[in-house]
Amino acid sequence: MQAGTRAVRHLEELIAGDLDAQRTGFGWWAGYSTMSPEDRGWLSYYLTGTVAGIGSNLVDAAAHLALYRDAMRREAIFYAHQVRAAGGRVPDMNHRNDIDELRGITIIAERKGFFRALGSTLDTLAATIGVGAVHLNLVRADWGSLCITGSEQDYPRTPGQDLSKLRRALVDDTTMGGAIQDTLLQAVRGAVRAAGPAHWDEWLGPPVTRRFIGRSGPRSSSR
Predict the structure, then answer these.
(1) Which residues are within 8 A (CB) of 135 and not within 5 positions of it... i.e. 6 or more apart?
(2) How many angstroms separate the CA atoms of 141 and 126, rounded?
(3) Residues 162 and 149 sit within 8 Å (Cβ to Cβ)
(4) CA distance linking residue 164 with residue 157, whole number of Å
(5) What's the CA gap between 169 and 122, in Å, rounded?
(6) Residue 92 lies in a domain
(7) Which domain of life is it from (predicted)?
């Protein structure tokens, strides 16, 4: 978590350094004649807020994890006490007071909160593809939009129906722009996959997340 938050803070600093008040937003975007100053300013604001949201969600995940571990520690103490009190017999675990019940609820709630926060982190990370001019709706973009599944070597241009929408969102791969887009998406996928066990990120994406822990909360607490 700490390495991730440090990386996000560094990215925020780099992005802040590119902001140009005279050109309204990212100065190097001013070279795109089809982008109005209003659009450039709005998109620049959205992207900076998105990057901040990545760090915010990581902090949320860390907090949920710490509270979950603390509740589990106290639950283990409770179980040990019940076993000793039973004098070697099978303890009766059905009799719990209000504090015990609240601890059980806390364990479930913090576990759900942890995975929701991680899922929101990935969804918010996906919105940063805006820097690569990928033709997807940045406001609605989520981790599933990037189709980060399988181990295909030719990602993001893997043939097949699953990646057809993403392929259409990219420029021709024979152009310099297309090569940059491929490099960006491959780097995002590689960085996330390197952060945990093989395919760990697939457990956080739809439909698994929606089925087991839900994803009805906000993507980022910063927006």
Answers:
(1) 168, 169, 170
(2) 6
(3) yes
(4) 8
(5) 19
(6) yes
(7) Bacteria
CA of 30: how far to CAs of 33, 129, 192, in Å?
7, 18, 31
What is the distance in angstroms between the CA of the first residue and the CA of the last residue of the chain? 21
Report the domain count for the chain: 1
| Range of the structural domain that residue 150 is part of | 2-212
Q: Residue 102: CB partners within 8 Å, gap ≥ 6? A: none
**Token duo for residue 180:** 């940059």
| 220 in any annotated domain | no
What is the reported pTM?
A: 0.75
Reported as a pLDDT band with limits 50, 70 and 90, residue 211 is very low
Nearest to 39 by CA among 60, 58, 25, 57: 25
**219 assigned to some structural domain:** no
214 and 112 Cβ atoms separated by less than 8 Å: yes
Mind listing the pLDDT tens digit for each residue in 171-186?
A: 888 888 888 888 888 8
